[in-house]
Amino acid sequence: MGPQSSLTDMTDVSPSGFRSVRDIAATPERVWEVLTTPSAFATWFGTDDASIDQRDTVMFELAGAEANGCSLTLSQTGGGLDADGYAQAAAGWAGFVDVIERLAAG
Questions:
Q1: Of all helices (H) and strands (E), which one includes residue 94?
Q2: Which residues of 2-34 are buried (b: 16+ CB within 10 A; e: fewer)?
Q3: Are 51 and 28 contacting, i.e. CB atoms less than 8 angstroms apart?
């Protein structure tokens, strides 16, 4: 884990969604705080309005409680996208996760 971490390649992109994993050098509790507190959310998402299409499901999962970090899994399904659309969505989410990682480590 550390500064060289990145989302896995997009081998988990399909016509029904995508799943990406990143190792983050922060505790699961700290990452959860960054994901869920309004001020941190506004920083990484760019707004405090989380309105999304009700057909989409975006899920964050945290695993590992090691002192040197945890694993963040991000998945998105629904919304009627095709595999190319999900690949683009995954690339967009990668930018959000970059900010989440910086906030959690800081």
A1: helix 83-105
A2: eeebebeebebbeeebbbbbbbbbbbbebbbeb
A3: no
pLDDT of residue 4: 40
The fold adopted by the segment(s) 10-105 is: Alpha-D-Glucose-1,6-Bisphosphate; Chain A, domain 4 (3.30.530)
Exposure of 69 in the CB half-sphere (CA atoms within 13 A): 15
Q: pTM of the full predicted structure?
A: 0.80
Show me where the domains of the chain are located.
10-105
User: What's the token pair of residue 54?
Assistant: 């009700």
Look at residue 9 and tell me whether its pLDDT is greater than 70. no
Distance separating alpha carbons of residues 60 and 97, to the nearest angstrom:
11
Per-residue DSSP letters for 54-70? TTEEEEEEEEEEETTEE
**What's the CA gap between 103 and 93, in Å, rounded?**
15
